[in-house]
Specification:
By secondary structure, the protein is an alpha+beta fold. Helix content is about 35%, strand content about 25%. It has three domains: about 190 residues, FAD/NAD(P)-binding domain (3-Layer(bba) Sandwich); about 120 residues, D-Amino Acid Oxidase, Chain A, domain 2; about 55 residues, no CATH class. It has 14 helices and 20 strands. Strands 3, 4, 5, 11, 12, 13, 14, 15 and 16 form a nine-stranded mixed sheet that branches. Strands 1, 2, 6, 7, 8, 9, 18 and 19 form an eight-stranded mixed sheet that branches. The chain has a three-stranded antiparallel sheet with strand order 10-17-20, with no helix packed on it. The model has no long low-confidence stretch (mean pLDDT about 95). Bound molecules: flavin-adenine dinucleotide. Flavin-adenine dinucleotide binds next to helix 1, strand 7 and helix 9.
Length: about 425
C-alpha cells in the first residue's frame, strides 16, 4: 500500500488547501504524502471562485488546465435586494483590465481532481480512501500519523512526518485534536442547497455572475451559481435555528423561502431540481493557533468565515501556497518551529479580517450594497476589490471608515421607524 513510512510532509486531505501545499513541498523534492479519506473525484460544495485565486493558479501552473476543463467563466457578483431590486452587478473588470479579473464557477469534483493530480505530477504520493484517525503530536517532530484504509480491510498503519499539514476541511482533524476551534457565535449559519436544470442563464459561452438574493424578510439569502454542465447551484443560507429548527424537510424549508424570493422564482420558473437537497450547518469558526512545532493548519481546517462572498476556495489556496512556502523554507533550514512554519499567519489573518468585517456588515439587517454605493459611489472600486479578494495589499479597510458609521446610522433609523 505504501512503499515508505517516513515523510518530510504528511498532508491530511486532498482538497484545494491540502493539494496546494503538497504541490509546493513536493516540487522542492521533499517526500510528501496526501492522505484523503474519499475516493476522488468526489462531490463538494463551494463552486463560485474569487478572482484573486488567479495568483495561486499561476503559482501552481494550472491556469491552462482550468481553460481546458472549460468551467463557466465568472465576471462579477450581483445582489438582489429584499424588495426585489436587481442591483447593478459588480463587474470585476470595471476596475482592472488584467485577465485575473475573470474567474470561474467550478464543479468541485473536477476542480479538486485537477489540483490533486497536479500535486501527484509534482511528486506527491496520494493515498486515497484512507482516513487519518489520529495524529500524535510530540514535543518535537517527527510526529506520528495514524491512518486507516477504508478499503484494505480497515487496516491501520502509522507513518511519521517531519511536518503534518491539516487540510481536512471542516473535519479539522488536528484543530479538534488540539482543542483550537473557536466558533463565531454571531455567525451560526446553516445552508440547504441543490442543483437545477433549465434555470435562467446568460446562454452560450457568455460569462455569468454569481447572484446573491435576499428573501423578502431578509432572514435568509440564496446563492445562484451557473455551472458548465447546464445546471445551476442554488443554496439557501440563514441562522441555524431559522433554517433547521422549523420542522419539515430541508426541501420544504428551501421551497418555503423560495416563495419569499421573487428574484429567484423568476430565475427558476422553468427549472427542474435534479439532485437531492444537501445540508451544511454551523460552518463558521476560527482557530486560536494556526501553526506549531512541526504542524500547520491550512484552508477550512484553520478556519472558515461564511459562504456569502465565495472566499472559501480562495483562502484555502492562499493559505495552502503561503504555508507550502514556509514549510519548504523550514525544511531547508531544518527549523520546524511554530514561528518558522507560521511565519505567513499574521499577513494572512490581516487580510482575512477584512472579509470577516464585510460578512458581518452583510448580516446587519439594514445593510444593502445598493444603498451604500448610492450614497458613497466613490467606494464602488474599494468594494469591488474586496469582492475580488484584494485584501492582502494596499488599504482594503479604508471603506469601513464610512461603512461603519453608515451601518450605525441605518440601524438607528430602522429602530426609530419601527417605534413610530
Ligand atoms: C454552504 C457552503 C457554501 C460554500 N460556497 C462556496 C463558494 O461558492 N465558493 C467558495 O470558494 N467556497 C465556498 N464554500 C467554502 C468551500 O467549500 C471551502 O472553503 C473549501 O472547500 C475549503 O477547501 P479545503 O481544501 O480547506 O477543504 P475541503 O475542500 O473540505 O477538503 C478537505 C478534504 O479533506 C478530506 N478529509 C477530511 N477528513 C479527513 C480525514 N480524517 N482523513 C483524510 N482525509 C480527510 C475530505 O474528504 C476533503 O476531501 C462554501 C462552504 C459552505 C459550507
Amino acid at each position: 500500500m505504501l512503499s515508505k513510512r517516513n515523510y518530510d510532509c504528511v498532508v491530511i486531505g486532498g482538497g484545494p488547501a491540502g493539494s496546494a501545499t503538497a504541490c509546493l513541498v513536493a516540487e522542492q523534492g521533499y517526500s510528501t504524502l496526501i492522505v484523503e479519506r474519499e475516493k476522488f473525484p468526489r462531490f463538494h460544495v463551494g463552486e463560485s471562485l474569487m478572482p484573486e485565486t488567479y495568483w495561486a493558479f499561476e503559482r501552481l501552473g494550472v491556469l491552462h488546465e482550468l481553460d481546458r476543463i472549460g468551467f463557466t467563466r465568472k465576471n462579477g457578483v450581483q445582489f438582489v435586494t429584499s424588495d426585489d431590486k436587481e442591483t447593478q452587478p459588480f463587474i470585476f473588470s470595471d476596475f482592472d483590465d488584467h485577465e485575473s479579473a475573470m474567474t470561474w464557477h467550478v464543479q468541485r469534483a473536477d476542480f479538486d481532481q485537477m489540483l490533486v493530480d497536479t500535486a501527484f505530477n509534482r511528486g506527491a504520493t496520494i493515498l486515497g480512501e484512507t482516513r487519518v484517525l489520529d495524529v500524535e503530536i510530540r514535543k518535537q517532530s517527527p510526529h506520528k500519523v495514524i491512518l486507516k484504509s477504508e478499503t484494505d480491510k480497515g487496516k491501520e498503519i502509522e507513518v511519521s512526518a517531519r511536518v503534518v499539514v491539516d487540510g481536512s476541511g471542516q473535519q479539522a482533524v488536528l484543530a479538534n485534536r488540539l482543542g483550537l476551534k473557536d466558533n463565531y457565535m454571531d455567525l451560526k449559519k446553516s445552508a440547504i442547497w441543490s442543483y437545477f436544470k433549465g434555470a435562467r442563464r446568460n446562454g452560450g459561452t457568455n460569462p455569468e455572475v454569481t447572484c446573491i438574493l435576499h428573501t423578502n424578510t431578509k432572514d435568509a439569502w440564496f446563492w445562484y451559481i451557473p455551472l458548465s454542465d447546464g445546471t445551476v447551484s442554488v443554496g439557501l443560507v440563514g441562522d441555524n435555528d431559522f433554517i433547521l429548527k422549523r420542522g419539515g424537510s430541508p426541501e420544504n424549508t428551501f421551497r418555503q423561502e423560495l416563495a419569499n424570493c421573487p428574484g429567484l422564482k423568476r430565475r427558476l420558473i422553468d427549472a427542474e431540481c435534479v439532485s437531492r437537497y444537501h445540508v451544511a450547518k454551523e460552518f463558521s469558526y476560527r482557530c486560536t493557533q494556526q501553526a506549531g512545532p512541526g504542524w500547520v493548519l491550512v484552508g477550512d481546517a484553520g478556519g472558515f468565515i461564511d459562504p456569502i462572498y465565495s472566499s472559501g476556495v480562495f483562502l484555502a489556496l492562499k493559505s495552502g501556497v503561503m504555508a507550502g512556502e514556509a514549510i519548504c523554507q523550514g525544511l531547508a533550514a531544518n527549523d520546524l518551529s511554530a514561528e518558522r512554519l507560521g511565519s505567513w499567519v499574521p499577513q494572512y489573518n490581516g487580510g482575512v479580517k477584512w472579509i470577516l468585517k464585510l460578512v458581518r456588515a452583510f448580516y446587519t439587517k439594514p445593510f444593502s450594497f445598493g444603498d451604500f454605493v448610492r450614497e458613497y459611489p466613490h467606494h464602488r472600486e474599494n468594494l469591488t476589490n474586496l469582492l475580488v479578494g484584494k485584501v492582502f495589499e494596499g488599504n482594503p479597510g479604508a471603506i469601513f471608515d464610512d461603512m461603519d458609521p453608515w451601518i450605525e446610522r441605518m440601524t438607528k433609523d430602522e429602530v426609530a421607524s419601527s417605534l413610530v
